[in-house]
Amino acid sequence: MSGREKNKKEKQLESCIRNTYNQEMISNEGKKIVDDENSLTAGDRGPTLIEDFLAREKLAHFDRERIPERVVHARGYGAYGEFELYQSMSEVTMADFLQNPSKKTPLFVRFSQVIGSRGCNETVRDVRGFSIKFYTDDGNFDIVAINFPIFFIQDAIKFPDLIHSVKPEPDNEYPQGQTAHDTFWDFMGSNPETTHMAMWIMSDRAIPKNYRTMEGFGVHTYRFVNKEGIAHFVKFHIKPVLGVHPLIWDEAQKLGEDADFHRRDLWTNIKMGNHVEYELAVQIIREDQEFMFDFDILDPTKFWPEEEVPLQKMGKITLNKTVDNAFSETEQSAFHPGNIVRGIDYSNDPLLQGRLFSYTDTQQARIGANYQQLPINKPVCPVFNNQRDGNSRHVIDRGKVSYHKNLLAENTPSEVPPDKGGFVTYPSTVEGLKQRKTADSFKDHYTQARIFWNSMTPVEREHIIGAYSFELGRCLVVAVRQQMVDRLARVSKELAEAVAKNIGVTVPDVEESTATKSSPAISLMNTNFVANTLKVAVFLAEGFPGEEVDALLQQWKKAGMHPVIVSNKLGEVTGSDGITYQVDQSFLTGSPLSYEGVYLVGGTGVDDYFHHQARTFIMNMYNHFKPIGAREESAHLLQEMGIDGQPGVVMDADSQFGQKFIDAMAKQRFWERPSYLYNM
Ligand code: HDD
Question: What's the top EC group for this one (predicted)?
Fold first, then answer.
């Protein structure tokens, strides 16, 4: 916060923030409380009296502290930030917040897991939500995105079926927050339009390393509309500045040891002042180009390859503030893909159309009719209309008139003509028979799934095969496994065969897709690789070479890395030359899973415990392909482990070591190492 002027939303929220520190204790009805530990009783040991309004108020309120969790995306985490435009987008849209490059728009983001309930583990294989509420001067604009550019289904009427299949099975109520079970894969195999999305969720994108390196996609086709009334089709993208980086499956599984892994990362990075940055971009298609592609641009199971429709970066999103209260802000935040502003409009994407109903409906069911008046949801522009009453209304409307049209209030609040900012729906032509049917142009379910497969590097393919083998291998019903492999055979025989051999089924003789195109932009091997914000565990024992280590740590901090001192126990560790560090984590409190690299220093005080812990820790990091740096003196340990000289194992043999290690950290994973994580 320091050095930054408060934005409109922060100023608006100030009036709602209550700080109880240093205050007297006063009940909700304003009574000063003399004793908050003892209920009112008759006599020392006597019964509690019902007239004790203080105990009644406290207990009754506690009984109502929970609201229904979201039916999907129940587990979520929020943060505030701002959007700053790079250049005016006025040529294609009249959206107020996209006109003037000097403009900053406050926003709130909520990241989420789809499947699990509010307390589920955050590192499971799942789609992640990436919802953004822009508090524009023209009202709220929400992008209710996920970390994939496509979705499972094409028509919203199938959404309840999809979710019923993926939630814990209704009889035994497991598994929690995961896709690896029969009902989910039964749905996927039985509904061929999901084939493409299945490929994406079996890729490493479904196990993001953190929210800071997770990509967001608006999925649907929207419209931009400019002042002249000309519309373009657009898709929204949110690109993390640090690149897109996943966990690997073995890490994700083991991170079950920290159910809060992602929220802890976001919170601590924002608190450390590591502003979390993304670029908001759009793909734009002219209306007259609508039918020029070999996929239907309204079909939400298809992406627009960046190579065919390039991304245009509009501006930067920076997350810079954590919430004060997770319930009031994050839990009560209410997003809606229908929240658009002048200059943005919908397309006929049938999934989007269904979502337009569902989100207001769910917010009203979950938080009540007046949810838009809650501080987190309230626009920063004024709100005047004739809607009244309902549960928990905050606004006090003065006057007799709550209807339109009227004489008594001189026909106000008055309607606003378009040239004064009134929202006008884009007048697209609609025609056709009323019918229930899937458009023929929506029926190709395998071409883009094959393009996805073609775009993957060998390592990514290995992970996808491993993921299918695990997920389908956890299905108890062989027919469910077989049905999915039948589907995969239509995408790629190579993929189907690799999976089939691991899960005891066969590959049918069906025609596989002949698509030869690929989209290199979707491979995670082509993302940004930087050392900035990466955490390196520095293993120090008493008597370490102080000045040498100090110089390296300074160099690494300058490169934006976060060295974390790890030793036998918390407290201080002192070098041979008297340099002292506070130990940040002991071997007991810090897990190898939470570091991106390790530097093994040691010292004269290395004992058996240090030796054993360092060995286990380093082996774990080695198996996860992470960079390992070590002093020459520690070479024997690496030799003992059989990993010296392996890719990404850097010895501090010369004065270039500091930079070589930064380069190794930036590379992040050394896939050249042998891998035994999957049976290939
Ligand atoms: Fe949804 C929540 C994203 C299809 C119905 N959805 C929700 C959230 C995200 C998405 C990010 C969490 C919002 C938050 O943080 O509070 N949903 C998507 C995307 C979809 C999609 C990208 C397809 C492209 N959703 C979808 C369909 C329906 C819903 C087809 C129903 C017709 N989604 C909901 C919901 C939720 C929701 C039940 C639960 C909580 C909420 O809305 O606020 O209404």
Answer: oxidoreductase
d(CA 575, CA 580): 6
The protein residue with its alpha carbon nearest to ligand 1, atom 27, reads: 355
- Taking residue 161's Cβ as centre, other Cβ atoms within 10 Å add up to 13
Taking the centre of ligand 1 as the mean of its atom positions, its distance from the CA of residue 165, in whole angstroms, is 16
Residue 283, helix vs strand vs coil: strand
User: Which tens digit of pLDDT belongs to each residue from 346-383?
Assistant: 999 999 999 999 999 999 999 999 999 999 999 999 99
Strands annotated E in 480-586: 535-540, 562-567, 571-574, 580-583, 585-586
| Token pair recorded at residue 279 | 């670029």
Contact yes or no for 89/95 (Cβ under 8 A) = yes
Strand partners, 105: 83
Q: 131 alpha carbon to ligand 1 midpoint, in Å?
A: 9
pLDDT tens digits for 1-22?
Answer: 457 899 999 999 999 999 999 9
Relative to beta strand 276-286, strand 231-240 is antiparallel
How many whole angstroms from 673 Cα to the centroid of ligand 1? 40
- Closest ligand 1 atom number to CA of residue 153: 30
Question: How long a stretch of residues is the chain?
Answer: 680
CB 318 within 8 A of CB 81: yes
Query: Which tokens is 562 given?
Result: 């976060």
Shortest-distance atom of ligand 1 to CA 112: 15
Are the beta carbons of 162 and 156 closer than 8 angstroms? no
Which atom of ligand 1 approaches the CA of 361 most closely?
Answer: 44
Q: How many CB atoms lie within 10 A of CB 17?
A: 11
**C-alpha closest to that of 252 among 110, 126, 151:** 126
For the question of whether the overall pTM of this predicted structure is more than 0.95, the answer is yes
Residue 376's contacts (CB-CB under 8 Å, 6 or more residues apart) are 13, 108, 328, 329, 330, 332, 333, 334
Amino acid at 238: I
CB 122 within 8 A of CB 263: yes
Pocket of ligand 1 (CB under 6 A): 70-73, 76, 110, 112, 129, 131, 144-146, 151, 156, 159, 219-220, 300, 333, 335, 351, 354-355, 358-359, 362-363
ipTM above 0.90, yes or no: yes
